[in-house]
Amino acid sequence: MRFRTKVFNIDCIHHFTNVVNTINKLLKKCTLRLTPDKLYFILPDQVSNGGVSMWCELKQANFFDEYQMDGVSSEHNEIYMEIIAENIVRALKSAHNAKSMKIKLTKKQTPCLTVEIELPSINSSSRLVTHDIPVSVIPRRLWDEYQEPTMPEFHVSICMPPLKTLKNIAERMKNLSTYLTLSANQEGDMVMKVETELVTVATRFQNLELPPFKDDDIASQAPSKLWPPTEMASARVDIRKFLQFLAGQQINPFKVICNIVNQSAIHFFLIHDDISLQYFIPAASV
């Protein structure tokens, strides 16, 4: 196996850093999947066990000037490794004004992702900062556990209001309840609500955009045609998981789609020119 990449453009370094910061806000440990064309940050399906799941996909050509990789074999030209996201974030903190950055897979006492950052210096020479990030290489027999998650047929799909607005509302609702109910219909209405024995607080959004479902990158299926367009589909979720999703966004997506499986799960799809990110939150039992 071999992996080596290099980037000279400081804007690309900052962009990649923002992506990794977003991943770190969403989860502690993830799987990094490398292919000749793309990089993936994956948290395998945990929804059935009450946990969140994530699938983030990056086109390597949009981030790196040089990119070389050879997988486990010519037939399976991919590499899977488990990594702690915070370790990458710490390494990239050194790169805010870097002249270049190199990332490669190395063999030290354990397999590592080695990040080499070339920094400018007062004199003509440059400084080189090196970070060795331990990783666990995942064997081929386990790869099937890290495939793109499948989404059950959802009942409602809607484009969300600005995430900053939702975050401000959810922060206030967090003081009232541990759980938040998110509801929407195919008429462009969405409601965020918390309920306690003493009070019910709700915020309603109207005339929201509906996804067109013409682009395979946006959705593989339209909402269920059996679900009445005016009827609200709802899911009650842990408000901390919802806030974790809202607080982690540093990639400035141009659209965020919310798919609701009634009383079962919420699927968020962030769309950006260079990145797509899917995030699943299961419904909490009442």
Structural account:
Belongs to the HUS1 family. Keywords: Nucleus. InterPro entries: DNA_clamp_sf (IPR046938), HUS1 (IPR016580), HUS1/Mec3 (IPR007150). Its main location: nucleus. The chain is of the alpha+beta class and 286 residues long. The chain has 2 domains: 2-146, Proliferating Cell Nuclear Antigen; 156-282, Proliferating Cell Nuclear Antigen (Box), CATH 3.70.10. The chain has 4 helices and 18 strands. The chain has helices spanning 10-26, 85-92, 163-173, 239-247, and strands at residues 2-7, 29-34, 38-43, 53-59, 66-70, 79-84, 100-107, 111-119, 127-134, 136-137, 156-159, 179-184, 190-195, 200-205, 233-238, 255-261, 265-271, 275-282. It has a 9-stranded antiparallel beta sheet. It has a 5-stranded antiparallel beta sheet with strand order 5-1-7-8-9. Strand 12 and strand 13 (190-195) form a beta hairpin. Helix 1 packs antiparallel against helix 2 (85-92) and helix 3 runs antiparallel to helix 4 (239-247). The N and C termini lie far apart (48 Å). Residues 215-219 have low confidence and may be disordered.
